[in-house]
Design brief:
Number of strands: 9
Helix content: 25-40%
Radius of gyration: 17 Å
Largest sheet: 5 strands, mixed, barrel
Strand order of the largest sheet: 5-8-7-6-9
Bound molecules: hypoxanthine
Order of helices and strands: HEEEEHHEEHHEHEHEH
CATH superfamily: Nucleoside phosphorylase domain
CATH architecture: 3-Layer(aba) Sandwich
Number of helices: 8
Shape: globular
Length: 278
């Protein structure tokens, strides 16, 4: 049975957070595999382990610390999820996106999401940073959409538009920051699959034909829920491995985490720059 989260459960978690902070965060961030050290730079930080929050899903994956870090970064009041929860961990789509709904109830205006992804575009190499301009919701097309189940009208409409899932102004800001800070920035379409197995060569050839530039196991459900509630979204992928369209190399979680250490400084610089210019 699929578990659908209720507004009451969302508000229980939101209230538990509100009790522990005195600021009103403006920007939410979900930091992906190997990319979550930015949370350590948050000032006046209030840290809340996920396990202390009611109804909050707990991450089980190596490389994902499970805590919220709320404070100041580059003059902005931020709400950072250090570690995300994935669909493949066994939670429902509704459960993995509860944190985003909590962001909505706390009045956040924007959400920045980062992830580690396989490079499907043959020009991409491990270590590249990609601005997500759109996504391929294959996981949703297969019936796993986080908005399935009763619509929570207080959060958004039954049939939300997704024509501009990634905010044009935030993308423009990211490009400006990248160019002024000399950060090479790729752009492309991120495709979400459920995982946890990596793709095979035929999967990858199919994804390339379908228009994917990068592939991963997250982000799109969170973005849909954020857009449902009207938050503006910025998405960044760190390309951690080259998709293996001919089956000649293997992909491991270790290389994904390892590449994170190369990508992290770039992603951090870009996010800091965007925060400064908001
Ligand atoms: N495929 C899916 N998810 C990923 C990959 C990949 O190659 N790399 C990092 N996350």
């Amino acid at each position: 049975m699929t578990t659908f989260v209720t507004l009451e459960q969302i508000d229980q978690a939101a209230d538990a957070i509100r009790e522990r902070i005195s600021t009103r965060p403006r920007v939410g961030m979900i930091l992906g595999s190997g990319l979550n050290s930015l949370a350590d730079s948050v000032q006046q930080a209030v840290t809340i382990p996920y396990r202390e929050l009611p109804n909050w899903p707990i991450s089980t994956v190596h490389g994902h610390t499970g805590q919220l870090v709320i404070g100041e970064l580059e003059g902005q009041s931020v709400f950072v999820m250090q570690g995300r929860i994935h669909f493949y961990e066994g939670y429902s789509m509704s459960q993995i996106t509860l944190p985003v709904r909590v962001m909505l109830r706390l009045g956040l205006e924007m959400m920045f999401v980062t992830n580690a992804a396989g490079g499907v575009n043959p020009d991409f190499v491990p270590g590249d940073m990609m601005l997500i301009t759109d996504n391929l919701n294959l996981i949703g097309m297969m019936g796993a959409n986080p908005l399935m189940g009763p619509n929570i009208d207080e959060l958004g409409p039954r049939f939300p538009d997704m024509s501009q899932a990634y905010d044009r102004e935030l993308m423009a800001l990211a490009r400006q920051v990248a160019s002024s800070e000399d950060l090479p920035l790729r752009e492309g379409v991120y495709c979400a699959l459920s995982g946890p197995s990596f793709e095979g060569p035929a999967d990858l050839r199919f994804l390339r034909m379908a228009g994917a530039d990068a592939v991963g196991m997250s982000t799109v459900p969170e973005v849909i829920v954020a857009r449902h509630g009207g938050m503006r979204v910025l998405g960044l992928s760190g390309i951690s491995n080259k998709a293996n369209l001919d089956g000649s190399t293997i992909t491991t979680h270790e290389e994904v985490i390892e590449a994170g250490t190369i990508i992290t400084p770039k992603v951090e610089k870009l996010i800091r720059g965007v925060l400064r210019s908001l």
